[in-house]
Amino acid sequence: MALRFVGIDPNTDLEHCPTVWADAEAGELVLQGWKAGPALRAECEASSPATGPIPDGEEVIRIPARMVPTIREACDAVERSAVQ
What is the pTM of this model? Predict the structure, then answer.
């Protein structure tokens, strides 16, 4: 896996820093964010009942909207690698 660091939350306090990486080889985004609490997990599950419960190996995370440009950059990096 060859992760490319894309960016961290521009308002980070260096202790709570949502981060985005691009894994061009795997064609995936790697996100670090705040873990969802039980209430948000339940709300996510209830909002899309067709998907069923969130598996133990998966997690709901929160990423601030101010990171949308960073996530777009990571998406572009992964998409470019899929085209080449």
Answer: 0.79
Strand partners, 23: 3, 28
Q: Which of 33, 40, 28 shows the shortest CA–CA distance to 61?
A: 33
63 neighbors 71 (Cβ within 8 angstroms): yes
DSSP state of 36: P
Q: pLDDT band for 32, please (50, 70, 90 cuts).
A: very high
Distance CA 47, CA 63 (A): 19
- Identify whether the C-beta of residue 66 lies closer than 8 Å to the C-beta of residue 9: yes
Closest CA to 20 of 4, 36, 37, 7: 7
E-only strand ranges, 1-84:
3-8, 19-23, 28-32, 34-35, 61-62
Angle, vertex CA 20, rays to CA 14 and CA 22, nearest 5: 145
